[in-house]
Design brief:
Blueprint (H helix, E strand, L loop, with lengths): L8 H22 L3 H41 L26 H13 L6 H7 L16 E2 L7 E4 L7 E8 L6 E6 L4 E3 L10 E11 L2 E2 L7 E8 L2 E4 L1
Antiparallel strand pairs: 1-2, 2-5, 3-4, 3-6, 6-7, 6-8, 8-9
Helix pairs in contact: 1-2
């Protein structure tokens, strides 16, 4: 039987936030010792921090650093460079826990269900009654974000899946080119214009991945027309 503990980050975060609050209330009544409640609280707090804060802020810092690096590296000459972007500060991390939070929580869920005081109402409150929702096969939703120095920035929706496959092609061509996989929105295409200072039209699409398996639920094609203007990739 499939565990009710989610696996992907998009679903596990709200589950953890609910379970953390409810287990602190329900745990003692089910017969769990204070030390067990404290250990589970630490597990949840650490994983919530990593998913919600650490990875998100770190990725923003990396994206800003790469964008500035490309601006300085590729120019064009005369483009105002501004100042080196400073990394956003990370809030303090909670107490470190041992690896394997989700496996421990799956074992805990089974232990909860074996408690004499357990019932369906408690299971629903804790969010540990496995449901069988239909998989969300809706394609990613693309949006064009701020772009400069020939970088095309595309926001996209995760819809609970692990990541996306990104493809692009020049308008008027048939074959799509894989640009890679992306775990977190946005995706930045740093390829320069084929012919410097010459406008070109690019088409982009994405599909979700379930682990390494492409769902092939391709998004609507996003068309970007751009040309260098004072060092910026301007949408025309």
């Amino acid at each position: 039987m499939q565990s009710p503990v989610p696996t992907n980050d998009g679903n596990v975060l709200p589950w953890l936030q609910n379970f953390l609050l409810k287990f602190q209330v329900q745990g003692p009544g089910l017969g769990f010792l204070p030390a067990q409640v404290t250990a589970t609280t630490a597990d949840c707090n650490m994983l919530i921090y990593l998913v919600q804060t650490y990875v998100a802020v770190t990725r923003q810092n990396v994206a800003a650093a790469l964008q500035y690096k490309d601006l300085i590296k590729n120019g064009p000459i005369g483009t105002p460079s501004g100042t080196v972007p400073m990394a956003a500060a990370l809030p303090a991390a909670p107490a470190t826990v041992a690896s394997g939070v989700l496996p421990r929580l799956r074992m805990l869920v089974q232990e909860i269900k074996n408690k004499p005081a357990y019932n369906a109402n408690i299971g629903a409150d804790l969010g540990i009654i496995a449901a069988a929702p239909a998989a969300d096969l809706a394609p990613p939703t693309l949006s064009v974000g701020n772009t400069q120095a020939t970088n095309v920035t595309l926001g996209w929706s995760k819809n609970g899946w692990t990541d996306v496959r990104v493809q692009a092609r020049a308008q008027g061509t048939v074959d799509w080119t894989d640009l890679g996989m992306d775990l977190f929105s946005p995706f930045v295409d740093t390829r320069p214009l084929v012919a410097p200072n010459t406008p070109e039209v690019r088409e982009y699409r994405m599909c979700h991945l379930d682990g390494d398996t492409a769902l092939l639920n391709w998004s609507a094609v996003e068309v970007v027309t751009g040309a260098l203007s004072a060092g910026f990739f301007a949408f025309l």
